[in-house]
């Protein structure tokens, strides 16, 4: 009974901590592997065949050696055996090459599928929860970590099966001919297993540290490239060069620590392997000297002992690969486990479609009643905000920076959910519709920050309406007062845009963003400081066009500009989280 209790205690310890995490992570990895069962089975079969040919070569080497050193040399037989030995090696080499091709093709497919799944989950994740991750860190997870995990599909389980077969077959053959030799060849096994078990935790921590440092370095590079203009404008080249050196030093230190740890462990493993090989050689020489075996059997023993030791080392070598893959999987799962935005139920989707049809060309009424929101318990941003915007109205939100204007627009877009109050959309003949992530199709949005995408101007505009023809693009550009400068470009609407709209001014990029939003033809238009880079005259023309040329669309604008306030039907002043209607 005490033995069973002791075994249960050991099993409970194995299930705790990182081993339990590894099991969860490996389970997630092999959900992808199940889709390629046929290819994985073929890979294992070819690997087993190649391993079998290697064992056959060892057995054939004994016959070849006997034929060479025998009293009656038959050179024809020696030549045939030598040719057979070479042929086995060539076939094994071809099988290895074929397996390499199969694993590469499947790994690439798995990597593409995994990247697509992870990227889609990024897009579906709750916006607030996703803000905890730097975009460079997310990029590291969807590229480097996914690549590591995808490569492990063939690097773990199939390799484990093949290496176990190689190890077991060699062990059985050696046991058949000389049990003592088999025991000597396995001398390192208990030490290696205990050694690996003790170091798995440290190896996992090293992997986490290296991957975290690499993600931090990638995030720094991505942020620096995004802000290159500011770095040059403020003459920060030297400072950012120094900061890169610091980030690189952190990554280098983590990598070198892991490298030193790996060298120490692999050197110890190699020393044990060499000690076992020398012991097997000494035993073989002794058996040959005492006449128990002949030279041919001695040659076969040495080959089999080498394969046995190599097979065992390969099995142990799978442990670092498994740890690397599971650490990468854990980093991916940390993002995949984030809360997701609610899916749109069919009945709700139909209500949104009816509301969109009712508001198209007529606008919708947007009503907020005592809405409150805070990013943290001690950080209230909106306190019992009430607001009304009717069809055809231009409603302005005023207030100092950081008072909550952009936060209010995020509530309307369903990016964040208020902790109190209600926000609803209304249309004649339709049931009131609460604002949420599901109601985004009813809004067109121009963000405060630049939102330019690579490609031509036409491709950027058609992001929100792929079926828009050139005439529709021209109308949207004219309404946004952008057609004049676009038409002067060498290729017009087919002019390629640089990254983040490089080559255009801030005002030109803002007008293109407004034109893109207009193509959505949504009942409610949200402009977050969307005219801040325009001169007063152009700003006034854009706003007049929005009010006169777009039917009864409801328009809400955040701004600091008197031009906007003068044209607004209603102005709401946001101060210390509260809203008051009236002049600024």
TrEMBL record:
**ABC transmembrane type-1 domain location:** 41-324
Q: Which SUPFAM superfamilies match?
A: ABC transporter transmembrane region (SSF90123), P-loop containing nucleoside triphosphate hydrolases (SSF52540)
Q: Which InterPro entries match?
A: AAA+_ATPase, ABC1_TM_dom, ABC1_TM_sf, ABC_transporter-like_ATP-bd, P-loop_NTPase, Type_1_exporter
Chain segments annotated as coiled-coil in the UniProt record: none
GO function term, MF aspect, one: ABC-type transporter activity
- Key words, A-Z: ATP-binding, Membrane, Nucleotide-binding, Transmembrane, Transmembrane helix
Q: How does it sit in the membrane?
A: Multi-pass membrane protein
| Top-level taxon in the UniProt lineage | Bacteria
Q: Which residues cross the membrane?
A: 40-60, 80-99, 160-177, 183-200, 268-289, 295-323
Q: Subcellular localization, per the record?
A: Cell membrane
Give all residue intervals belonging to the ABC transporter domain.
366-583
Q: Which PANTHER family match?
A: ATP-BINDING CASSETTE SUB-FAMILY B, ATP-BINDING CASSETTE SUB-FAMILY B MEMBER 6
Q: What is this protein called?
A: ABC transporter, ATP binding/permease protein
């Amino acid at each position: 009974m005490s033995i069973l209790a002791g075994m249960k205690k050991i099993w409970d310890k194995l299930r705790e901590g990182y081993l339990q995490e590894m099991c969860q992570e490996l389970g997630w990895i092999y959900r992808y592997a199940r889709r390629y069962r046929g290819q994985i089975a073929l890979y294992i079969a070819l690997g087993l065949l190649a391993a079998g040919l290697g064992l056959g070569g060892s057995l054939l080497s004994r016959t070849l050696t006997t034929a060479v050193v025998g009293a009656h040399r038959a050179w024809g037989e020696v030549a045939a055996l030598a040719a057979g030995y070479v042929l086995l090696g060539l076939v094994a080499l071809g099988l290895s090459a074929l397996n390499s091709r199969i694993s590469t093709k499947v790994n690439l497919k798995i990597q593409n599928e995994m990247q697509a799944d992870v990227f889609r989950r990024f897009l579906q994740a709750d916006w607030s929860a996703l803000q905890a991750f730097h975009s460079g860190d997310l990029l590291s997870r969807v590229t480097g970590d996914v690549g590591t995990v995808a490569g492990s599909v063939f690097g773990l389980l199939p390799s484990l099966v093949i290496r176990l077969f190689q190890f077991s077959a060699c062990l059985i053959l050696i046991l058949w001919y000389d049990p003592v030799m088999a025991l000597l060849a396995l001398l390192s096994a208990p030490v290696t297993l205990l050694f690996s078990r003790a170091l798995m935790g440290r190896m996992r921590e090293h992997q986490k540290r290296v991957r975290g440092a690499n993600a931090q370095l990638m995030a720094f590079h991505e942020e620096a490239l995004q802000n290159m203009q500011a770095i040059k404008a403020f003459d920060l080249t030297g400072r950012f060069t120094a900061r890169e050196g610091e980030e690189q030093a952190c990554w280098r230190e983590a990598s070198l620590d892991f490298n030193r740890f790996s060298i120490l462990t692999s050197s110890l493993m190699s020393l044990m392997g060499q000690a076992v090989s020398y012991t097997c050689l000494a035993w073989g020489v002794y058996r040959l000297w005492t006449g128990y075996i002949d030279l041919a059997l001695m040659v076969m023993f040495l080959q089999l002992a080498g394969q046995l030791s190599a097979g065992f080392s390969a099995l142990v070598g799978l442990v670092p690969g498994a740890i690397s893959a599971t650490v990468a999987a854990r980093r991916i799962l940390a993002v995949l486990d984030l809360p997701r935005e609610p899916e749109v139920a069919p009945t709700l989707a139909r209500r949104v479609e009816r509301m969109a049809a009712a508001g198209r060309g007529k606008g919708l009424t947007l009503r907020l009643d005592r809405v409150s929101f805070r990013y943290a318990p001690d950080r209230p941003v909106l306190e019992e905000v009430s607001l009304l915007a009717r069809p055809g109205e231009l409603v302005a939100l005023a207030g100092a920076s950081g008072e909550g204007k952009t936060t209010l627009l995020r509530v309307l877009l369903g990016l964040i959910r208020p902790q109190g109050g209600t926000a609803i959309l209304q249309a004649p003949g339709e049931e009131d519709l609460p604002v949420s992530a599901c109601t985004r199709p009813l809004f067109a949005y121009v963000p405060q920050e630049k939102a330019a995408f690579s490609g031509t101007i036409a491709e950027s505009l058609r992001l929100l309406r792929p079926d828009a023809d050139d005439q529709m693009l021209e109308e949207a550009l004219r309404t946004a007062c952008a057609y004049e400068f676009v038409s002067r470009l060498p290729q017009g609407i087919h002019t390629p845009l640089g990254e983040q709209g490089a080559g255009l001014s801030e005002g030109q990029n803002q007008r293109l963003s407004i034109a893109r939003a207009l193509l959505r033809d949504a009942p409610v238009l949200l402009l977050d400081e969307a005219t801040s880079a325009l001169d007063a005259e152009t700003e006034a023309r854009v706003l007049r066009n929005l009010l006169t040329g777009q039917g009864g669309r409801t328009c809400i604008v955040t701004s600091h500009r008197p031009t906007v306030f003068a044209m607004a039907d209603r102005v709401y002043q946001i101060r210390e989280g509260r809203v008051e209607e009236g002049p600024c």
